[in-house]
Amino acid sequence: MMVQSPVATVVILDFGAQYSQLIARRVREACVYSELLPHDTPWSEIARRNPAAVILTGGPESTLAPNALGVDPRLWQAGVPVLGICYGMQLIARDLGGALVESTHREFGPAALRLLGASPLVDGVPEQSRAWMSHGDTVEQAPPGFTVLASTASCKVAAFGDPDRRIYGVQFHPEVAHTEAGRQIISNFLHGVAAIPATWQMESFVERAIGEIRAQVGAGRVICALSGGVDSAVAATLVARAIGERLTCIFVDTGLLRKGEARDVMHAFRDILHLNVIKVDAEERFLARLAGVIDPEEKRIRIGHEFIAIFEEESLKLPDIAWLVQGTLYPDVIESKTPGSKAGHKIKSHHNVGGLPETMALKLVEPLRSLFKDEVREAGRVLGLPEAIVERQPFPGPGLAVRVLGEVTAERLKTVRAADAIVTSEIEAATLAPRPWQYFAVLTPLQSVGVMGDGRTYANLVAIRAITSEDGMTADWARLPHELLERISTRIVNEVPGINRIAYDVTSKPPATVEWE
Ligand code: XMP
After folding, report:
1. Could you give the residue numbers annotated as active site?
2. Which residue has the CA at smallest separation from atom 6 of ligand 1?
3. Residue located nearest, by CA, to atom 10 of ligand 1
4. How far is the CA of 395 from the centre of ligand 1 (A)?
5. Which among 153-162, 328-337, 464-473 has the top mean pLDDT?
6. d(Cα 303, Cα 315) in Å, to the nearest integer?
7. Of 6, 88, 203, 442, which is the most buried if we count CB atoms within 10 A?
């Protein structure tokens, strides 16, 4: 087995800020590996990672409150470079002998940041630049040994540092795009102050992950459910590179996929990626399960159960399977550990092939646990996955069943598939900036009167949904050019039988959701 070189790791201690994940991403964008840990992680646990630097995030609380969240004090003696952001900076001030004042009001939004002196932290930063502030308390006086590096009109200590101990703090948020010098400051801290080389690259991740998978599964046999989505494709390809034929993938064609999708996915997996894939044609089973069902939640639940049943049936046909590959991503891993993260109200039963058979008593291989979504795409490119898979838009596990409002039948699926193919091809042929994040057609049961040729029609309404979003959690409707909407509308009405009217969905999320069901 290949010997893995240790990777320089930056540990980010999370105090529950809205932007904690963004800090981890920015560090990785600077080609440095980072891990987000809860703020109260014991020093022994942090030290086990041999951190090249530690970053303290912001947080919603006040460091002056009784029982305020803190860090293991051994951090201050460890000789490791530290960057405190917002709450993190206030914590440095509180713990190392500075002075803080409680706020009477919160400062929120852009501020003009003015440099007061030279320092490796602000190397290359303009004398004046815009910085994003979001805080209550402020540092009144830097701790002994610290120099004040920058200020704003309402915050006289906006950045400070002790070059000897390599401990720095910034009151503003360098991780957000609105802070003009933010990337420079993070890069200065990592490469200048902490002298960490910019070596975290996808190639090294892929190499390391393959070695780790080999070590983890030994001589075991592994199973994987492929959905056609990027996460399961990248996870499966990594595992296949590690253990070859001992991985069996199962691709269930639910009959709920888009036009040509099942064929394209199989072509990519079998012919391009050379994965060992069993294809299960299950359209009839899913249609039988969905017959007469119109309630969205009931559809989702039935599809999820049927999927598990098929996956289990198939896996029982394979001898000696001990492991299941899951495409779990880093945001899923940290969600449960982040202070203040709560399980929200259930809006929809999301069905995801990665999160399936809990009853099967298989051990988990989760090679993407440390990656963000955009890093998964990059890993996919390094592994040679086709662009169509790497850049595939999110597609719900229950597929077109949640885009056919009312009963799901073969006929109605054919209609939505034809309309969706027109929406997709027209949007992809257009030059749009920004490109919508997701776009599709929805078949509604609503019928209305129309006139075609000289005759009256009484046919269905198709809705078009196109959104801009970063992660699907919130979304805005895409401002598509009217000419493009016109082309899509004309083509659907002319080319898809049974449709005589088109509506464009102009609702954001919230209050709507992305999918209609
Ligand atoms: P909603 O409709 O909840 O969708 O606003 C947010 C994002 O999630 C996708 N989506 C799903 N993804 N399984 C998935 O893997 C599901 O059951 C599912 N339902 C919705 C949706 O397409 C959007 O990108």
Report:
1. 86, 173, 175
2. 472
3. 396
4. 7
5. 153-162
6. 18
7. 88
Pocket around ligand 1 at a 6 A CB cut-off: 348, 350-352, 394, 396-398, 438, 472, 509, 513-515
Q: If you measure from the C-alpha of residue 264 to the centroid of ligand 1, how many angstroms do you get, rounded to a whole number?
A: 22
pLDDT tier at 352, thresholds 50, 70, 90: low
User: Residue 58 has which token pair?
Assistant: 């912001």
Q: How far apart are the CA of 473 and the centre of ligand 1, in A?
A: 9
Of the candidates 275, 274, 279, the residue with the CA atom closest to the CA atom of residue 248: 275
DSSP 471-502: SSSSBEE----HHHHHHHHHHHHHHSTTEEEE
32 touches 60 (CB < 8 A)? no
Average pLDDT, the chain: 92
pLDDT digits (tens, 9 = 90+) for 240-273: 999 999 999 999 999 999 999 999 999 999 999 9
User: Residue 226 is which amino acid?
Assistant: L
Residue 108's pLDDT band, with cuts at 50, 70 and 90, is confident
Give 121's DSSP letter. G
Query: Is residue 93's pLDDT more than 80?
Result: yes
Mutate to test the pocket of ligand 1, among 307, 351, 469, 514 (most ligand atoms within 8 A of CB): 514
Whether pLDDT at 341 is above 60: no
- The first and second tokens of residue 439, run together, are 């776009």
Residue type, 402: V
152: closest CA among 186, 183, 181, 123? 181
Count the Cβ atoms, other than its own, within 10 Å of residue 506: 11
pLDDT at 273: 92
